[in-house]
Amino acid sequence: MHRRPVLTLLRSHLSCGLDPHEALMTEAIIAFVEQHEDCFLRSCLTGHLTGSAWITDPKGTRTLLTHHRKLDKWLQLGGHADGDTDLLAVALKEAREESGLTRFRVRQAEVFDVDRHEIPERKGVPAHWHLDLRFWLEADPAEPLVVSDESHDLAWVAIKEVERLNPEESMLRMVRKTLAAR
Questions:
Q1: Among 63, 42, 37, 35, which residue's Cα sits nearest to residue 134?
Q2: Contact 130/51 with Cβ under 8 angstroms?
Q3: Which are the contacts of 151, defined by CB distance < 8 A and separation ≥ 6?
Q4: HSE-up (13 A, CA, CB side) for residue 161
């Protein structure tokens, strides 16, 4: 699988003046991609790349979150690459599948955020790392939502209310970046 484009995205992201924690995660993901040719496949059991969509309204005052069924957390939409080396395309596909929305504007084609988080063991699949590249998309909150079988619910949430639903640094970092860009 061709890893050069994702490595280019990650190295470009690393040069954007990240906070120390995100910089360390980005460096770790770069090293992982360099070491694992199969990093785009979930059969890479130590970890694999995922693509996520941080979806906001055009003004950046609300974000679309899913109440993830398996993890029982409010999160951005996203999922496995399953061999697709274009993680922006993965994020767009997952956003469509998990929300029912059909119209998105890519706010930036560069990586918006990265996160490295452990997924617990479940149904015989060992605990492993999701190496998540996140892209900023915009959508119209008036477009109807369709809750997929992967979630309990979907909701447009005020950016300043995200912390109430999920206070993890991974989410708060995206909130801070959104507020700084407005």
A1: 63
A2: no
A3: 66, 67, 68, 69, 98
A4: 10
Report if pTM > 0.90: yes
105-106/77-80 β-pairing: unpaired
| Top-confidence residue, 62 or 182 | 62
> 128-163: per-residue pLDDT in tens?
999 999 999 999 999 999 988 888 899 999 999 999
Q: Give the SS3 label for residue 9.
A: helix
- Contact present, 55 and 138 (Cβ < 8 Å): yes
Q: Is residue 166 within 8 Å of residue 117, measured between CB atoms?
A: no
Going by the DSSP 8-state scheme, the letter that residue 24 receives in this structure is H
What the block records as the tokens of 6 is 């994702």
| Beta-bridge partners for 68 | 73, 151
Q: Which domains does the chain have, with CATH numbers?
A: 4-181 (3.90.79.10)
